[in-house]
Amino acid sequence: MKQSERNIQRTLPLDIALKIASSLKVLDLCSLGSCSRFWRDSCGSDSIWESLTKQRWPSLHSSSFDPNTKGWKEIYIRMHREKAGSAAEVVGFVEQCSLSESIDVGDYQKAIEDLSSMQLSFEDVRMFLFKSKLNVLLNLVGMHYCIFCLEMPADRVMDTLVGCDILERKVHVKWWKLGRWFYGFRMRDESCSCWVSLEDLLTGKGEEVLGVLRRGAVHEVFRVEISISNPTSTSWCQSTQGQG
């Protein structure tokens, strides 16, 4: 044992070391645990990893654990790998559906349903989908899932998007509405087109667009398309009449 490690053990009580370790995020905790045998034992405490696991996956039930699991750190690592694999499936699906830089609302909603069936947590979405290197359509899928499936407060989601540097990323949403019937005649179909940022969708400015994305192609709306926006566009929203 190195002299410096002996000095730490003599001067730093175990309960204080555990308190320090329990205040860290996972990556910092792992880094500290690699410094010495003393910190490896402290940072590997089962109580710390139990708390981290339950914080990240609040709906996790102990009945689903493998009986051969040795401790909470192993459970956390297994869950992390499982959720990373699930998120990768959704990423691959959306990227495949958006090769032309647009995605049909049916595929968009399927991606959200898949996230729900995989039971990804808010932290999972932040870690795997709220990345600036990913297609903004994936950022949008993750945001939609957090708002409507996890029912996360909009301000918390917004703070997270700020931290991930993706809040101002934009998408283009276009939807087509059936023409209304007027005195026995059907009016021309109407198309609406909007450039909207993720921030807009979390505020009142993008309320109508978010509603369209949530409902999809139902009732009077017969088609919805989401594509990567052109950041040089200055037009936010416009409507045009189509052929009746």
TrEMBL record:
Query: Which superkingdom does the taxonomy of this entry point to?
Result: Eukaryota
> F-box domain: from which residue to which, for each copy?
12-52
GO term, biological process aspect, one: protein polyubiquitination
> What are the GO cellular component annotations?
SCF ubiquitin ligase complex
Q: Which positions carry the signal peptide feature in this UniProt record?
A: none
Its recorded name reads F-box domain-containing protein
Tell me what organism the protein belongs to: Populus tomentosa
Q: Which InterPro entries match?
A: F-box_dom (IPR001810), FBXO4 (IPR039588)
